[in-house]
# Entry
Amino acid sequence: MSDKAPGGDLPQGLGKPAKRALAKAGIHDLDQLAGTTESELLGLHGMGQKALGQLRLALADRGKSLADDKRDG
# Structure
């Protein structure tokens, strides 16, 4: 038996703090990340550049990416 959440396909090497941050934000799989920006992810307590890179790579492997950050100026 597995305790893995249905549809949970986050990278295996993702650190526990990053996994907790995503879970707290209601993100349990890569499909949910498609509408999320890097700024939003980095704003989560426990999410850092290393985890962000792992998520970017995992999304790219599936032909997806994070949403673009919109900046004024």
